[in-house]
Amino acid sequence: MKKFSICLILFWGVVQVSAQKDSIYIEAKLSADRKMLDVNQEITYYNHSEKDLNAIKLLNWISAYNKRGTSLVYRKLEDRNNDLHFAKPEQLGKVLSLDIKNSVNNRDIPVNNISDENLFLPLEKALKPGENVKLLLHYQMQLPDKKFTGYGTSDKNVALKYFFIVPDHFDPDNISKRDYYDIEESVNFNTYWTVNFDIPINYFIESNLQQIQMNSFKGYLDSDPEFLISENQFPAIIINTEGINTEIKFGYNLTSQEKQNLEFYLPLHLKFIKDRIGAVPDRLFISDKFRGKEDFFGNNDITFWKFKFQMFTDTEKTDLDYFGIIAKKILDESVITDKEDNHWFKNGLKSYLELQYLKKFYSETKILGNLPETKIFGVKPLKLFHASNVKLVDRYGLAYQYIMSQNLDQKIDENFTGLSNFNDMAISSFETGSLFNYSADKMGYENFNSTVKDFIVKNTDKPIKPEDFLKELSEKDKTTNYLDAFLKQKNRVNFKLKRIRRDDDSLNIKITKNTDTAIPVKLETETRNGETKSYWIDTDENERIKTFSVPALDIYKITLNDDYIFPESNYRDNFLYAKGFFSNNKKIKLKLIKDIPNPEFNEIYITPRVRFNNAYDKFLFGINFKNQSLFDQKFLYSFTPMYSSGTGKMTGSGAVSYSFLPAESIIRSLTFGISGSYFHYDYDLAYRKASFFTNLNFRKNPRSTVSRGIAFSYNYLERDLNQLMINRGDYDKYNLWSLGYGYADSQMIHEKSLSVSTQGMEDFNKITAEGFYRWEFAPKQKLSLRVFAGYFARNETRNNMFNYGISRVSNYAFSYTLLGESANSGILSQQYILADGGFKSFIPGTVNHWITSFNVDSSVWKIFHVYADAGVYKNKNQPTKFIWDSGIKVRVIPDFLEVYFPIQSSLGFEPGFRDYAKRIRYTLVLNLGSIINAARRGWY
Predict the structure, then answer these.
(1) Which of 276, 518, 590, 785 sees the fewest Cβ atoms within 10 Å?
(2) Closest CA to 432 of 476, 484, 492
(3) Could you tell me how far CA 533 lies from the centroid of its own chain?
(4) Where is the domain boundary, 540, 567, 585?
């Protein structure tokens, strides 16, 4: 009788819960090969909106894995991952059959296409607010390979999430489609689940749902259910201390040392988080995928060749990683938000909690950890870098500063699917977390934390509007009013220390800001002994200049918003000295290697440079002076005086530029600059080049692979000539101007570019167009097509210097990086530049009227390619000619070092020529910027 009563109470509790919330009952059978899932399902769906519903939208997100062209496939390609695009049919995920019935009358509900990610089900009669409808579903699905998203089937286990067909809770009006992007968004919240599995023997299941009995799970979730089916049972840690009773399950194995560390740190993490947000769940499930996404960015060991350098101890890494993981998991379980529109709220709170944790336990820890203490030949080279002194807590402001300096940052409330991967971290998380921390510092951490606690408790079990949180925050402290506007635009707020004046026993400090918005600023004074004192200064609306007085005492330095605590557009004007030679200025510091900029100083980077030119200058020794750090700056200068060992003369180059980076404009950057250079291009023959240039880059979505720009340049060139060159009328002085438009799309499967330009001087004008297309038709197998067309609108030149090249280029503007400028023989002359006609065989001649060429290159096997070139050209007063060539290309280092072996061409069978070795060509790109751009694709 007692057991019966308990069961009755439990049953009644379930009925009560189900009556108030949506409920989903599932019977799922996994096939023996773990690739098929057969599902019987009942959905009880309530109309939680205030409108009548005539249809219900179900999410059938496993169909995102079904074919090419889905939003999921495209997003993976944006992230430089083509696994799903090239997947085999048996690796895909899809619904094989689907029947849906209305449980009231047992009638079939028609489904137009079971391969759609969104299924719209018409209702026989409108579903009024508060009413419910029950649907009976039976479907069979083929599970996708787990390697695509971390969910699916693999040799080791099966991870299930977002595969069951469920209602869309965030879209009660059933109008817009909601596709799967693999962004870990909330789909089913406020739902009671009952899930029973039939799985192969000797397999176990872990879940974020409570396990009632073997293979059966039941309970209420504010997040989406997740299941891991494996032959292994994974560990769990139960925390029962200081009012916390939480079981943490892991979807992966832990080493004994890691488990021991977690048993120490997890209670500390939970207590720390509970004190700031109010409560922690009774149960948490950490999957391998979640761990990889939410762990601490930037604390991994550095591996170089056979060497391994450890930045942090294993214990520290465990602590840092799991605090972020646990914080985000708790927020996911406690706060319901639409990730597409309100991603910044939970991401920002996670970063805020991390900042507080680092300040308490890692306040003096450096961003490079223990790495600066590494000795190489008895010295610590990293100590030379300012990066070795940057604190770990500064990483939040630095990440924002880095992406903002390239004008590739995005608005905080940008739709999540439009955020680049780097902005997901730097903007959604780090910038928002910094703003929360800044507000908490100003209003008091206790006040901020209590606001967070109250807001979460008040919105338990229902979707929140983060704007309401900001409203409540401003009611407690009106100086946080600016936060709402900060979300909706890219921020370029800048505070500046204008000057310091001593007035008797006080220092009058003039502060300016470039916005009319009332934003508080934190000022800090420091004595020579390192004693500091902080002041908060409120500013009013439309007040751009503020004068503030502090006791003079022994103040040596004054700082605004130190430690990157506020996301400013420029930190370099936040420091002034109150005493000494540099009073009201900043000190100058000379540095040897590019570094994270130290905004306290005017830094000049001095770098030794060595170049080699076999024919003319021999070794070039020089020193480069520039102000460019690891972060981009608007004003840049670079000067490199060099000594030519081959000529015994001084050579060198220099450039100055300034870039305008409007935050909200169709323009991403507009750069103006001047440059000059003096080098040798032949034996005892020098050239001098002076240039004015301007580049306009159009705005791009940081997730997009498309870039567009316009460039204009004017070049004055002066060359020394020998007697032979004078006799044949070579040019010693000439003025070149050029104007061009470029379009490039570096997407993974279909890479393409187009450029159109015109160039001219006193004796000629020519128009040039080039199109490029590269198709990856199989993994790491590509077909490249290039079309080139050049036409002289006017050509009155005295020689062939400005002609289009067929197999060689004329470097008359000294714009190509040639190892031998005037080399006509030897290995240097065999360098190949893909320009003009683009022929690899040494086909003689140049073109002074028009040329059209077509270049084809295709993968054959591994690093081996075949190529073919064909073209038609015409010179003045000569008939049109057709030329072609073909051969084999070996991609030693793709796009950077490639070797061409000509086979057959207009010249004949080239391997049969005696001088065949001299006909082999190669490309060599020594451009660090190109390497960096290739590496960062997929991030921004």
Answers:
(1) 590
(2) 484
(3) 38
(4) 585
Task: From residue 93, give the alpha-carbon distance in Å to each of 65, 87, 290, 443, 922.
Answer: 5, 10, 21, 51, 44
State residue 821 phi and psi, 5-degree precision: -55, -45
pLDDT at 928 over 80: no
7 band by pLDDT with thresholds 50, 70 and 90: very low
Any domain includes 457: yes
Q: Within this chain, do residues 926 and 795 fall inside the same structural domain, yes or no? A: yes
With a cut of 70, say whether residue 243 has pLDDT above it: yes
The number of beta carbons lying within 10 Å of the beta carbon of residue 571 is 24
Nearby residues of 475 by Cβ (< 8 Å), 6 or more positions away? none
Where does the pLDDT of residue 175 fall: very low under 50, low under 70, confident under 90, or very high at 90 and above? low
What's the angle, vertex CA 907, arms to CA 901 and CA 909, rounded to 5?
A: 55
Distance between CA atoms of residues 567 and 570, nearest Å: 9
**Structural contact between residues 504 and 565, judged by C-beta atoms closer than 8 angstroms:** no
291: β partners: none
- Counting the structural domains of the chain, the total is 4
List all residues 6 or more positions away from 75 whose beta carbon is below 8 Å from its beta carbon.
181, 182, 417
User: Mind giving me the DSSP string for 661-713?
Assistant: --SSSSEEEEEEEEEEEEEEEETTEEEEEEEEEEEEEE---TT--EEEEEEEE
- Among candidates 283, 145, 273, which has minimal Cα distance to 210? 283
CA diameter of the chain: 118
Structural contact between residues 603 and 616, judged by C-beta atoms closer than 8 angstroms:
no
Q: Are residues 83 and 187 in the same domain?
A: yes
In this predicted model, what pLDDT tens digit does every residue of 438-483 receive, in sequence order? 999 999 999 999 999 999 999 998 899 999 999 999 999 999 999 9
Determine the number of helices (DSSP H) and then strands (DSSP E) in the chain.
Answer: 15, 47
pLDDT-derived band at 103, boundaries 50, 70, 90:
confident
CB 353 within 8 A of CB 345: no
Number of alpha carbons in the 13 Å side-chain half-sphere of residue 207: 28
Interacting residues of 621 by C-beta distance below 8 A, sequence separation 6+:
608, 609, 610, 642, 643, 645
Residue in 161, 92, 168, 105 with CA at minimum distance from that of residue 136: 105
Residue 597's DSSP bridge partners are: none
| Structure confidence at residue 816 as a pLDDT band (50, 70, 90) | confident
E strand spans, 52-173: 53-59, 94-102, 107-108, 118-127, 132-142, 152-153, 157-160, 166-167
What's 615's DSSP letter? T
Same domain flag for 121 and 47? yes
Rounded distance, CA 75 to CA 148, Å? Answer: 11
The domain in which residue 794 lies consists of 746-799+820-940
Residues 6 or more apart in contact with residue 336 via CB below 8 angstroms: 186, 189, 190, 222, 459, 461, 462, 463, 464
- pLDDT reported for residue 826: 78
pLDDT at 4 over 70: no
Q: Confirm whether 931 is domain-assigned.
A: yes
Q: What share of the chain is helix, strand, coil (3-state, %, to 5)?
A: 25, 40, 35
Where a domain ends, among 185, 200, 232? Answer: 232
